[in-house]
Structures are given as structure tokens and as C-alpha cells.
Prior knowledge:
Layout: E1 2-6, H1 10-24, E2 29-32, H2 43-51, E3 61-65, E4 67-68, E5 77-78, H3 79-89, E6 93-96, H4 100-110, H5 124-149, H6 157-164, H7 171-175, H8 182-190, H9 196-214, E7 221-223, H10 224-231, H11 235-238, H12 241-246, E8 263-265, H13 266-274, H14 281-289, E9 307-310, E10 316-318, E11 322-323, E12 336-339, H15 340-346
Parallel strand pairs: 1-2, 1-3, 3-6, 9-12
Antiparallel strand pairs: 4-5, 7-8, 9-10, 11-12
Amino acid sequence: MKIILFEDSAQYESSLLVALNNELAQNGQALLFKAVQSGDAIYEERLENDLVQITYQGAQLIVADRDLSKLSLYGGLSEPTVRRVADKLGIPECGYARGEREVEFLHNDKWRESRIAVTLDGNDQQFAKQVVSIGEGFKFILEALPTAMKLPGKKSVGKILSTILGKPEYGEKIALYASGDQNRLTSVFAVGKDDDQGARRLSCLLGYWLWDSVLRYPGVFVNEVAASSYLDIKAEVFGDSQIQQLFQSARYQGPFAGAKAALWWRGMLDDIVAGSAAPNGREFAVAKLNREIHRSECCEDPQKSAGYYCMLSGKPVSLDNSKPGVTWFPRGADLARISSRKYEEDVPWL
């Protein structure tokens, strides 16, 4: 795997390259981007010409600093420009920032479509693990795409992605994440799929969609808080190693798993509980471990079990004390809610 690093600070470029190449080990190489030549063309044209040079051909990920204003021969360059060129060439891209700008950068990208932001926070090794995992995720999607595209019958983005993930039975559920997402759908269907660059661009679109929609909004997948809420187990208790082991087989191990916090397949959690006589996950765990396990608690009323997940607070919430599908929630994210209190606080922005 080949990763291209865009960094304009000599102070950081060396340590980041070392961390990335250590993480890649014998499985690839990270290269520092260097301008091939100067010229009068606009930056996007020059950058495209530079990135198709032999040195960078076959790159499977670009990782770029938010501020590249001091990059040699590209003074004033910024990460969004790099992303536009990467999109055109079908190369996945993720960005990062450092210092005080990092918090703002991560927060802003959290709410932007088809954006991947990684954290630096002075930890080069953790940064490298995230970046390499993202690169491996896109590589997996690209390599699995031809087989998914050859499936008989009518194809949908949900069917294609579910096949890539090895769970074709979830195709209809995943397809709901694309319902109403006209911008992304238009991009997917506009991409030529029969040539190499078209396949690369399609794999990028599928990867971004998986990262910032399907994996993010609880429905097909659930994060730790959403999983505990859904299973009716108190969030603080769900981290217990014995409880975790009961649901280990439902852990998501697919693309980007190493770059995100723990996720579970919701359907597989259902299958685990359904295989017993227990009515829910908590009762299943009680029967298996033969000890008391506290139920989930709604963040607004602890007397009520939760069952759902507040997207703004990241806390478990009950059906009665929350609001349903805000327009920007994917239809498939049926466990995603906004607590009533947060909704009242933020309704002007929602």
C-alpha cells in the first residue's frame, strides 16, 4: 500500500513518515509529497500533473495537513484543494490538523459529508494506526468491488456495499442509508464503473459513505453506547470484559474498524439474543453470567430504560424522551434520536 503525506513543516514531516512506515512495516510505503516542478497553471492542474507522476502512481491514500501554506512551490495551498484533486483521480483522502486548530477541524469535519479527519494530538503512533487502517479499508473496498459488481440482478449501492462487507442479507437495510441522499447517489451513478479510474472513484464514494454514514448513525451498526442502550444494559456496565465476551462474535471487523471506536453488527446482536429464551440483551447476560446487571438508563429520565442513542450528546435515551428522524439522519438509522432537552437547546440549528 502506498500512502502520500502532505506536510509543509520540516519539524513534523520526518516523525510522521517514520510512524507511518513503521505501521506499514513490510506492507507498503509512505512518501512525502514533493512538487515535481513549478509553473503558471492553477494549483489544481499542477497538483494533478504531479500526482500522476510515476513516484505517486498507485497511491491508495493521501493524508494532508489542513494548512499547507508553506509547502514548497505551492505557497497558500490548503487541504480542501488536495481533496478535490484526489477525488478527480480516485484517490481516497483524509485530513488532520494540530494544536488548537485540531479540535475545531475534527468537530467541523464530523458534520461534513464524505470527510475523514484523523487526530494527531501529539501521538504519532496512534495517528499512523488510524491512517493505515483507513488506507487498508479503502484498499479492501477497491479489491472487493469487481466481485460485487458482477452479482446478477439489479444493483443498488446498498447491495454493492453489503456484498463487499460480506453481509448481503443486510443489503436492503444499508440501502435505506442512501434514501434521500441525492447528492451522494448522483455521484455514485455518474461514475463510470468499467475502467480502472472509474472503479477507484466508485470505491472512494462507497468508502466515504460507509465511514460517515453507515458506520456513524446507529441502525445497521451500533457503537458501544448505542449497543448497551439497545441491549438494555447500563453503559458503564457494558464495558465489563465478561459482558463484552458474550457479544464478541457481533463485533465489526470490516473496513475502517481499526480507525474507529468499537462497533457491533446490530443484526448479529439480535441473533445472539434470539438464540436464547431471553427477551433482551440484559436478561441474556444475566442468565449467562448468573449475576445482577443494571439496565440501561435514559439520559433524561434514569427511571426509564433507554433503547436509543442521542446523536448530539452521545448518550442513551428513551423513545419517550427524544425526537425522531431529523432531516439529515439516514432513514436506516432507526436507533438515532435527539434527546428532548438537546432538541430544545439546538432546535434553531436543526
